[in-house]
Write a structure and sequence with these properties.
This protein is an alpha/beta fold. The chain has one domain: Rossmann fold. Helices cover 30% and strands 28% of the residues. The chain contains 6 helices and 10 strands, in the order βββαββαβαααβαβββ. The chain has a 6-stranded mixed sheet with strand order 6-7-8-3-9-10, sandwiched between helices. Bound molecules: adenosine-5'-triphosphate. The site of adenosine-5'-triphosphate has 12 residues, from helix 1. Keywords: ATP-binding, Nucleotide-binding, Transport. GO terms for molecular function: ATP binding; ATP hydrolysis activity. It comes from Larkinella punicea. It holds the Pfam family ABC_tran.
Protein backbone atom coordinates (compact mmCIF):
# COMPACT_ATOMS: atom_id res chain seq x y z
CA UNK A 1 0.00 0.00 0.00
CA UNK A 2 2.85 2.40 0.84
CA UNK A 3 6.38 1.82 -0.38
CA UNK A 4 9.20 3.80 1.18
CA UNK A 5 12.66 3.81 -0.42
CA UNK A 6 15.85 5.64 0.55
CA UNK A 7 13.90 8.06 2.71
CA UNK A 8 16.01 10.69 4.41
CA UNK A 9 14.94 13.75 6.37
CA UNK A 10 17.20 16.35 7.93
CA UNK A 11 16.41 19.59 9.72
CA UNK A 12 19.21 22.16 9.27
CA UNK A 13 21.72 19.40 8.36
CA UNK A 14 20.73 17.33 11.40
CA UNK A 15 19.55 13.85 10.41
CA UNK A 16 16.22 12.88 11.99
CA UNK A 17 15.20 9.85 9.91
CA UNK A 18 16.88 7.56 7.38
CA UNK A 19 14.78 4.62 6.12
CA UNK A 20 16.38 2.61 3.35
CA UNK A 21 13.31 0.45 2.81
CA UNK A 22 9.87 0.02 4.40
CA UNK A 23 6.78 -1.62 2.95
CA UNK A 24 3.36 -1.16 4.48
CA UNK A 25 0.80 -3.61 3.09
CA UNK A 26 -2.92 -2.77 3.25
CA UNK A 27 -4.01 -2.69 6.89
CA UNK A 28 -3.60 -0.83 10.16
CA UNK A 29 -0.02 -0.08 11.16
CA UNK A 30 1.05 1.28 14.51
CA UNK A 31 4.12 3.51 14.82
CA UNK A 32 5.63 3.77 18.26
CA UNK A 33 8.59 5.77 19.48
CA UNK A 34 9.78 8.07 22.19
CA UNK A 35 9.08 11.79 22.23
CA UNK A 36 11.17 13.45 19.56
CA UNK A 37 12.03 10.20 17.75
CA UNK A 38 10.57 11.34 14.42
CA UNK A 39 7.01 10.01 14.14
CA UNK A 40 5.43 13.37 13.28
CA UNK A 41 8.27 14.11 10.87
CA UNK A 42 7.50 10.84 9.08
CA UNK A 43 3.75 11.50 8.99
CA UNK A 44 4.20 15.03 7.69
CA UNK A 45 6.55 13.76 4.99
CA UNK A 46 4.15 11.00 3.92
CA UNK A 47 1.31 13.55 3.90
CA UNK A 48 3.29 15.65 1.44
CA UNK A 49 3.75 18.55 3.84
CA UNK A 50 7.52 18.34 4.31
CA UNK A 51 10.34 18.07 1.76
CA UNK A 52 12.52 14.95 2.05
CA UNK A 53 14.94 12.85 0.01
CA UNK A 54 13.87 9.47 -1.35
CA UNK A 55 10.67 8.00 -2.74
CA UNK A 56 7.15 7.33 -1.50
CA UNK A 57 4.76 5.38 -3.71
CA UNK A 58 1.13 4.66 -2.87
CA UNK A 59 -0.54 1.48 -4.12
CA UNK A 60 2.35 0.78 -6.47
CA UNK A 61 1.36 3.61 -8.82
CA UNK A 62 1.00 7.01 -7.17
CA UNK A 63 4.46 8.47 -6.69
CA UNK A 64 4.45 11.55 -4.48
CA UNK A 65 6.80 13.33 -6.91
CA UNK A 66 5.52 12.02 -10.27
CA UNK A 67 1.78 12.18 -9.44
CA UNK A 68 1.64 14.77 -6.63
CA UNK A 69 -2.07 15.60 -7.01
CA UNK A 70 -3.30 12.01 -7.36
CA UNK A 71 -1.11 10.99 -4.42
CA UNK A 72 -2.37 13.78 -2.14
CA UNK A 73 -5.96 13.11 -3.09
CA UNK A 74 -5.56 9.61 -1.63
CA UNK A 75 -3.55 10.37 1.50
CA UNK A 76 -5.28 12.15 4.41
CA UNK A 77 -3.62 13.35 7.59
CA UNK A 78 -4.93 14.05 11.08
CA UNK A 79 -2.32 16.00 13.02
CA UNK A 80 -1.45 15.35 16.66
CA UNK A 81 -1.92 18.98 17.65
CA UNK A 82 -3.76 20.69 14.82
CA UNK A 83 -3.16 24.37 14.26
CA UNK A 84 -5.66 26.21 12.12
CA UNK A 85 -6.23 29.91 11.38
CA UNK A 86 -8.16 31.06 14.48
CA UNK A 87 -10.46 33.38 12.53
CA UNK A 88 -11.87 30.54 10.38
CA UNK A 89 -14.83 28.45 11.50
CA UNK A 90 -14.74 24.65 11.33
CA UNK A 91 -17.43 24.88 8.67
CA UNK A 92 -15.25 27.07 6.43
CA UNK A 93 -12.29 24.74 6.91
CA UNK A 94 -14.35 21.62 6.23
CA UNK A 95 -15.88 23.13 3.08
CA UNK A 96 -12.43 23.98 1.76
CA UNK A 97 -10.86 20.60 2.54
CA UNK A 98 -13.96 18.78 1.26
CA UNK A 99 -13.56 20.57 -2.08
CA UNK A 100 -9.86 19.66 -2.37
CA UNK A 101 -10.61 16.05 -1.38
CA UNK A 102 -13.70 15.84 -3.62
CA UNK A 103 -15.88 14.79 -0.68
CA UNK A 104 -19.62 14.40 -1.35
CA UNK A 105 -22.04 16.50 0.76
CA UNK A 106 -23.71 13.54 2.54
CA UNK A 107 -20.27 12.42 3.78
CA UNK A 108 -19.58 15.90 5.21
CA UNK A 109 -22.84 15.84 7.18
CA UNK A 110 -22.28 12.29 8.34
CA UNK A 111 -18.79 13.07 9.71
CA UNK A 112 -19.95 16.30 11.38
CA UNK A 113 -22.60 14.33 13.27
CA UNK A 114 -20.36 11.32 13.93
CA UNK A 115 -17.73 13.40 15.71
CA UNK A 116 -20.34 15.71 17.28
CA UNK A 117 -19.11 19.09 16.10
CA UNK A 118 -22.35 20.55 14.75
CA UNK A 119 -23.04 22.71 17.81
CA UNK A 120 -19.91 24.82 17.35
CA UNK A 121 -19.21 24.42 13.65
CA UNK A 122 -19.95 28.07 12.81
CA UNK A 123 -17.89 29.48 15.70
CA UNK A 124 -14.30 30.70 15.07
CA UNK A 125 -11.68 28.02 15.71
CA UNK A 126 -9.76 30.37 18.02
CA UNK A 127 -12.44 29.77 20.66
CA UNK A 128 -12.22 25.94 20.57
CA UNK A 129 -11.04 23.69 23.38
CA UNK A 130 -8.34 21.12 22.54
CA UNK A 131 -10.98 18.37 22.26
CA UNK A 132 -13.12 20.46 19.91
CA UNK A 133 -10.04 21.08 17.75
CA UNK A 134 -9.21 17.39 17.72
CA UNK A 135 -12.71 16.41 16.67
CA UNK A 136 -12.57 18.97 13.84
CA UNK A 137 -9.25 17.52 12.68
CA UNK A 138 -10.75 14.02 12.66
CA UNK A 139 -13.64 15.14 10.44
CA UNK A 140 -11.05 16.55 8.03
CA UNK A 141 -8.95 13.36 8.17
CA UNK A 142 -11.83 11.17 6.96
CA UNK A 143 -13.11 13.43 4.14
CA UNK A 144 -13.05 12.23 0.55
CA UNK A 145 -12.04 8.78 -0.65
CA UNK A 146 -8.57 8.24 0.86
CA UNK A 147 -6.61 5.01 0.41
CA UNK A 148 -4.41 5.87 3.39
CA UNK A 149 -5.16 7.91 6.50
CA UNK A 150 -2.33 9.04 8.77
CA UNK A 151 -3.48 9.65 12.32
CA UNK A 152 -0.91 11.16 14.68
CA UNK A 153 -2.08 10.67 18.27
CA UNK A 154 -5.76 10.42 17.26
CA UNK A 155 -7.00 9.78 20.80
CA UNK A 156 -5.39 12.56 22.82
CA UNK A 157 -7.72 15.11 24.47
CA UNK A 158 -10.83 13.11 23.50
CA UNK A 159 -13.52 12.07 25.95
CA UNK A 160 -14.34 8.38 26.40
CA UNK A 161 -17.33 8.36 24.03
CA UNK A 162 -15.41 10.06 21.21
CA UNK A 163 -12.43 7.73 21.71
CA UNK A 164 -14.77 4.81 21.06
CA UNK A 165 -16.22 6.60 18.02
CA UNK A 166 -12.73 7.06 16.55
CA UNK A 167 -11.75 3.42 17.12
CA UNK A 168 -15.02 2.16 15.63
CA UNK A 169 -14.62 4.44 12.60
CA UNK A 170 -11.05 3.28 11.96
CA UNK A 171 -12.17 -0.34 12.11
CA UNK A 172 -15.12 0.24 9.78
CA UNK A 173 -12.97 2.22 7.33
CA UNK A 174 -10.43 -0.59 7.30
CA UNK A 175 -13.20 -3.03 6.39
CA UNK A 176 -14.00 -0.71 3.46
CA UNK A 177 -10.40 -0.90 2.22
CA UNK A 178 -8.79 2.18 3.79
CA UNK A 179 -5.35 1.68 5.36
CA UNK A 180 -3.99 3.51 8.38
CA UNK A 181 -0.68 4.57 9.85
CA UNK A 182 -1.29 5.48 13.48
CA UNK A 183 0.81 6.76 16.31
CA UNK A 184 -0.32 6.73 19.90
CA UNK A 185 1.26 6.72 23.32
CA UNK A 186 -2.00 5.22 24.60
CA UNK A 187 -2.62 1.48 24.38
CA UNK A 188 -5.71 0.31 22.55
CA UNK A 189 -7.57 -2.95 23.14
CA UNK A 190 -6.57 -5.27 20.28
CA UNK A 191 -10.06 -6.78 20.26
CA UNK A 192 -11.44 -3.31 19.42
CA UNK A 193 -8.79 -2.31 16.90
CA UNK A 194 -6.98 -5.11 15.04
CA UNK A 195 -3.47 -3.91 14.23
CA UNK A 196 -1.63 -5.62 11.38
CA UNK A 197 1.88 -4.52 12.29
CA UNK A 198 3.75 -2.49 14.85
CA UNK A 199 6.78 -0.38 14.01
CA UNK A 200 9.19 1.56 16.15
CA UNK A 201 10.91 4.82 15.31
CA UNK A 202 14.27 4.80 17.04
CA UNK A 203 17.96 5.34 16.30
CA UNK A 204 16.91 7.67 13.45
CA UNK A 205 15.12 4.95 11.53
CA UNK A 206 11.88 2.96 11.34
CA UNK A 207 11.80 -0.78 11.96
CA UNK A 208 9.02 -3.39 12.20
CA UNK A 209 8.84 -4.98 15.65
CA UNK A 210 5.94 -7.38 15.04
CA UNK A 211 3.69 -8.50 12.24
CA UNK A 212 1.13 -10.07 14.56
CA UNK A 213 -2.54 -9.09 14.57
CA UNK A 214 -3.28 -7.09 17.69
CA UNK A 215 -1.06 -5.32 20.16
N1 LIG B 1 10.68 22.21 12.14
C1 LIG B 1 11.68 21.61 12.78
N2 LIG B 1 12.92 22.16 12.76
C2 LIG B 1 13.96 21.57 13.39
N3 LIG B 1 13.86 20.41 14.08
C3 LIG B 1 12.64 19.82 14.12
C4 LIG B 1 11.52 20.38 13.49
N4 LIG B 1 10.45 19.57 13.71
C5 LIG B 1 10.92 18.55 14.46
N5 LIG B 1 12.23 18.68 14.71
C6 LIG B 1 13.07 17.75 15.46
O1 LIG B 1 12.98 16.48 14.85
C7 LIG B 1 12.97 15.46 15.84
C8 LIG B 1 11.74 14.60 15.65
O2 LIG B 1 10.58 15.37 15.98
P1 LIG B 1 9.12 14.79 15.76
O3 LIG B 1 8.16 15.90 16.08
O4 LIG B 1 9.03 14.17 14.42
O5 LIG B 1 9.05 13.66 16.90
P2 LIG B 1 7.85 12.76 17.43
O6 LIG B 1 8.33 11.34 17.41
O7 LIG B 1 6.61 13.05 16.67
O8 LIG B 1 7.70 13.26 18.95
P3 LIG B 1 6.44 13.26 19.96
O9 LIG B 1 6.15 11.82 20.34
O10 LIG B 1 6.96 14.06 21.11
O11 LIG B 1 5.29 13.94 19.25
C9 LIG B 1 13.07 16.18 17.20
O12 LIG B 1 14.42 16.16 17.60
C10 LIG B 1 12.63 17.58 16.89
O13 LIG B 1 13.27 18.51 17.73
Amino acid sequence: MLTVRNFRKEYHNRLVLAISQADFPPGIHWLKGRNGSGKTTFFRSVAGLLPFDGSLVLAGKYDIRQQPVAYRLRVNYGEAEPLYPPFLTAWELIRWVATTKQAPNPQIDELIDLFGIRDFIKTPIGTYSSGMLKKTSLVLAFLGKPSLILLDEPLITLDHATTKTVIDRIRQSREQGISFLLSSHQDVDASELPVDSVWVVQNQTLEPITQAAGL
